[in-house]
Amino acid sequence: MVVTSIVFRSMCLSLRQSGRMIRSALICWLLLVARGDGKPTERRTRVHQEEPLSALRHDDKQNFDYDHDAFLGQDEAKAFDRLSPDESKRRLSIIVDRIDSNKDDFVSEDELRLWIEAIQSRHMFEDVEHQWSEFDLNQDGLISWDEYRNVTYGSYLDGPLTETEYNYTHMMARDERRFKVANRDGNLNADRQEFMAFLHPENHEYMKQVVVQETMEDIDKNGDGFIDLKEYIGDMFTAENGLEEPEWVASERQQFSEFRDKNQDGKMDREETLDWILPADYDHAVAEAKHLLYESDSNKDGRLTKEEILNKFDLFVGSQVTNYGEALLRHDEF
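Above: the chain sequence. Below: its structure as tokens.
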């Protein structure tokens, strides 16, 4: 499976945050190599989506295994498989009662959206809490840049500063830049909200320009500060062994010309890149709520009963409503 640069950076960040630098370096290097080992005709994407990756094909008409694997990972997905249908429905029933905030015995699209947004926020909060103690070395309730740098890059800083195939100097500079932007008061001591913005910049409005800058640095091979058509296509597709271009490449060329390059100057600037990777006209929580309502509303009255939801329990445990099934496994909630 092709690993995109966005996912690659995110996975490497998680690995580096474990503090085990030698193993992290090896795995990150393997991920970098894996980026070029996918099928040469497979499309790569830069668009930031909350939909995680999975080796499985995403086809809701067949099953929801993709959603389970993508969020939980294969091991956790197998753990979910141990729940019987009756137990899954029992636990999902409890969640439905919580989603129905006005207690009218119906779940509206807006209630679904609010619940999904809350689940997304909780995921980011728990990510921060999970990592906090590892980086707050002096336990003062803040994470300084020095603390983060020493934990993440300590083994590299203690060793000989030689350039290798994997450029830690470059990665550390990018992390420092992102850390400074996330730290809104400029004191280089991040509180929990600022550390969350550092870990999840795409979910914070004031961090979006950093996401754009990092993306452009990856794609802008000639260093002119823009992304031209060749660079745009080259980031998603690399022809190998004289294979013909797949049909979707021609479609992407058309997308670039008609929609990405809005001012028709043959290249994308920062604002055009922002509109591409973080489209303002698409809300994932709204889209997911609409999808669930459409698929489950059997009488088409624009709202869901508990019965309608339970009749589609496989859909809901494979959606963001239950954090892709994870909520059904949390003992503290049941």
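The two ends are 36 Å apart (CA to CA).
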